[in-house]
Amino acid sequence: xxKLSFLFVLLFTATFTFAQQPDFFNLGLDAYYNGNxxxxxxxxxxxxxxxxxxxxxxxxxGICHFYLGNYKSAIRDYNRSIKLNPTSPDxxxxxxxxxxxxxxxxxxLQDFNQAIRIEPSSYTAYYNKGILLYNQEKWAESQNNLNxxxxxxxxxxxxxxxxxxxxxxxxxxxxxxxxxxxxxxxDSNNSLGYYNRGLCNVKLDRKDQACSDFQKAFExxxxxxxxxxxxxxxx
Length: 235
Prior knowledge:
This protein is an all-alpha fold. It is built from 13 helices and no strands. The radius of gyration is 20 Å and the shape is elongated. Mean pLDDT is 90; it is low at 1-15.
């Protein structure tokens, strides 16, 4: 059988907290929700001229910088937010994501751990820590953190997807397929569940089931499945 390429999509969760403030703060919120991140940054900057000690303004501006790929600027804003409000787990999580996106894994890990110390029930902190460890191929540690995220939020399908990917990486293909089936049971429209289960079925020499999974993933909008359908010569 022809060896097929595969694509795993990075999923991570950022936590956003918004409070209602007058004037430029609310204009920044409106611009953010409309995807106008540069405009939002401009409004938050104006808002800071009126209130330089508002941690939420720095925090929200950091989110906009992050989405624009301005990780250094995002980190600076999260630094200011944390200095003003050092007990916010969300700021540590999001700064950790900015560090992770900047390839500064050690600092990202420190931030995720600090978020967990502040709020032990933060499933997003465990989840993002699990992804960081997954990217480092620390499979057991990654799965432990993802399992912790699931124990806090049992319906968190994204964490389950990564657990399936870990099983795939260590060549436990049937276990991985079962995990992706569980994802599909929790969310029947999860294209990654079908796509990754299809990859497992390829490894298990179950062509018909693989084709069915790739077809469903493609119908749900996951375009990479088209390559798999073509490679397997699915009908």
